[in-house]
Amino acid sequence: MAKQKLNQDIYKEIRPYTDEEIPYAINRMLxxxxxxxxxxxxxxxxxxxxxxxxxxxxxxxxxxxxxxxxEICRTFxxxxxxxxxxxxxxxxxxxxxYLYIANHRDIIMDSALLQIFLTDNDxxxxxxxxxxxxxxxxxxxxxxxxxxxxxxxxxxxxxQILANSxxxxxxxxxxxxxxxxxVWLAQRNGRTKDGYDKTQQSVLKMLYSSKKNVDIYDSIRxxxxxxxxxxxxxxxxxxMKARELILKEKxxxxxxxxxxxxxxxxxxxxxxxxRVHLQFGRIINEQIxxxxxxxxxxxxIQYVCSLIDKQMYSNYRLWPNNHIAYDxxxxxxxxxxxxxxxxxxxxxxxxxxxxxVDDVSYFKMKQKLLEIYANxxxxxxxxx
Length: 384
Known about the structure:
The chain has 384 residues and is of the alpha/beta class. The chain has 16 helices and seven strands. It folds into two domains: 2-16 and 79-236 and 271-317, 3-Layer(aba) Sandwich (Glycerol-3-phosphate (1)-acyltransferase), CATH 3.40.1130; 322-382, no CATH class.
């Protein structure tokens, strides 16, 4: 018992709230006018006095997720998504804990849609990560920690970031191996902006750092990594992503505006996404070929990254928009059987609308937007 208490203290700065901490957090949250307004906006069918009473009765993170936060995310889903489909989960053991390494397209909706699926299928909700750059006010920290999220430090000194990285690595391993609780983790630091999902070596190195006294493959196998691919018919924040990519190419260093992360969250939540598909891949343990020889540990890590990436590219659901963009960019009709003239007209209208911004040329925006939508096709073809 003392050891458990010690572990809680070690992870206190990054871990979700314990059930004992939930009532105090709820008291703070209910003092926020913004939180109350959000409840009424996102759960409009329930009277506010009933909602507040319901929130006050919550005593666990699971209750908070299932009764409030996931219901709010369900509203987001219903307002911006035509159809949400899931496949591949049947290959996994529902009684086992996994590390879901996912491509990252939207700040909130990627992991929220996974949690909705788990809840709707009576499966255990997983823990998920959130960058400290998004926790800009105490109310956001309370909501995240009540929602079973743990914190990854992206601000501060290099020493602070490294220390947090090691702590997060230990916490993820503890979650899966000791707590038997699955974890959602993005494959990279920040969202994929260019439509080309690629696992960063630093993510695998971070995971390995919590158990470096064994072979890399043994350390990785213990985490039961499963690639999870989310595919949006209309890319969340496509205009903002294209603009940022262009300005980065121009200025080399892109500096976010003070409210840019918040704007990305709101745009990602409410922008129209059309159809969305979530695909669970095969556990990486089954894919590792130990007969392959590598000269150093870095090469082994890159090999595991490539295994994850290959599944990301092959499991991405290619929508008509992706094939249309590829054909336009390459001046070809290679994929014309995958879309109609009607869908091509609608997509072109979307691109024209999104290409209009104040500080970047229309031509550059159009080109970059087409690349964002075409790159999943390009990645699929390159990794066949």
